[in-house]
Design a protein that fits this description.
The protein has two domains: 151 residues, Alpha-Beta Complex (Quinone Oxidoreductase, Chain A, domain 1); 137 residues, Rossmann fold (3-Layer(aba) Sandwich). Helices cover 27% and strands 26% of the residues. It has nine helices and 15 strands. Strands 3, 4, 5, 6, 7, 14 and 15 form a seven-stranded mixed β-sheet that branches. The structure holds NADP nicotinamide-adenine-dinucleotide phosphate. NADP nicotinamide-adenine-dinucleotide phosphate binds next to helix 1, helix 3, helix 4, strand 9 and helix 6.
């Protein structure tokens, strides 16, 4: 089969298209013919060995993907050959024609979605659900700031928050990103490149009940000043350190919580997939596929996913 491989931690330019054997599965696993692979920032961290991520070599990148089940291990229940699925983790890498998947991280793909959209679900929508509901415990009618809403996770959060009747404010870093958020039905879009963009919200009366934060090292200090009483910040993304004043938390009985998808347990994953399914099938949640790459253009996708100016998900189409 065709698969992307890298032989050691390194830059995106070292990702190469190779001919490899189709992987075999154990009795506990599922073999999926991958139709599309999602490209997420974590794929670049694993490829380059940064942010404490490690892997073995040769390494085929890609945690997220979608496709059709071609083989089901004899101890696996609930899946059948030919079934359309998406996955949020796999054992062999989704940038390949086949991927070894695990039942706990593989889910039925809603009929309303194509495979390219399905490849955007695993990490982004699961993280969005866990951050907004599992960690920040956001409720209908609460005021939610999605701080960094133009990327894969941010769009998933705004769609979910709107579907659940929350009052959503969102930020972008470019005019194109702001236009995208307006198309997504967000009436108040802020520019996170402006140092004072949160100033109008930095009082108990105007503050947010929940902030879903994509770049905490830039924003956490200002976020805490923009919380309502009892407000919560869920940290999804962070690329450095930040100084805060804990008095901002004390004054509001506020809380900051971390979110790491890697910590999720199978039962929670199952619940999230089951609650996303009708929203995806009903069109309330719909991934924004910004760009589709061929398998041999994956290096460019790994470069692009780390650039500013996000406008949705990046996907690799597997023929
Ligand atoms: P992405 O598609 O690359 O999007 C990155 C987002 O960050 C964009 O919306 C971007 O906006 C925004 N951003 C850039 N500068 C910002 C700033 N100063 N303030 C606020 N937002 C800013 O990435 P993603 O897949 O959505 O993931 C977002 C982050 O969460 C990444 O760091 C990723 O590694 C992390 N993540 C964590 C988990 C977890 O389990 N904790 C899971 C998935 C992802 P513009 O481009 O418009 O400036």
């Amino acid at each position: 089969m065709k698969a992307i491989q890298i032989q050691q931690y390194g830059p995106a330019s070292e990702l190469a298209l190779e001919e490899t054997a189709i992987p075999s599965i154990s009795s506990e696993q599922i073999l999926v013919a991958v139709k599309a692979a999602g490209v997420n920032p974590i794929d670049t961290y694993i490829r380059s060995g940064t942010n404490n991520y490690t892997t073995t070599f040769p390494h085929t990148p890609g945690l997220d993907g979608s496709g059709e089940v071609v083989e089901v291990g004899e101890n696996v229940n609930g899946f059948h050959v030919g079934q359309r699925v998406y996955f949020s983790r796999n054992l062999s890498g989704s940038a390949a024609e086949f991927a070894v998947c695990i039942p706990t991280h593989t889910f039925p793909l809603a009929d309303a979605l194509g495979f390219e959209e399905g490849a955007c679900l695993g990490i982004p929508y699961t993280t969005a659900h866990r951050a907004l509901l599992g960690r920040a415990n956001a409720k209908t009618d609460e005021k939610v700031l999605v701080h960094g809403a133009t990327g894969a996770v941010g769009i998933a959060v705004i769609q979910l928050a709107k579907a659940l009747g929350m009052n959503v404010v969102a930020t972008a870093g470019t005019p194109e990103g702001r236009a995208l958020l307006e198309q997504q039905g967000i009436h108040t879009v802020l520019d996170h490149t402006q140092a004072d963009h949160l100033t109008p919200y930095q009082s108990l009366e105007q503050g947010f009940d929940v902030i879903i934060e994509m770049l905490a090292n830039h924003n956490l200090d200002q976020d805490l000043k923009a919380l309502a009483f009892g407000g919560r910040v869920a940290v999804v993304g962070n690329r450095g350190t930040v100084e805060i004043n804990p008095r901002d938390l004390m004054a509001r009985d506020a809380a900051v919580m971390g979110v790491a998808l890697a910590n999720i347990k199978p039962a929670e994953l199952d619940l999230i997939a089951k609650s996303l399914y009708p929203l995806l099938n009903g069109g309330l949640l719909k991934p924004v596929v910004r760009k589709v790459y061929s398998l041999d253009a994956i290096s460019q996708a790994h470069e692009d996913v780390m650039k500013s100016g996000a406008q949705g998900n990046l996907v690799i189409k597997i023929n």
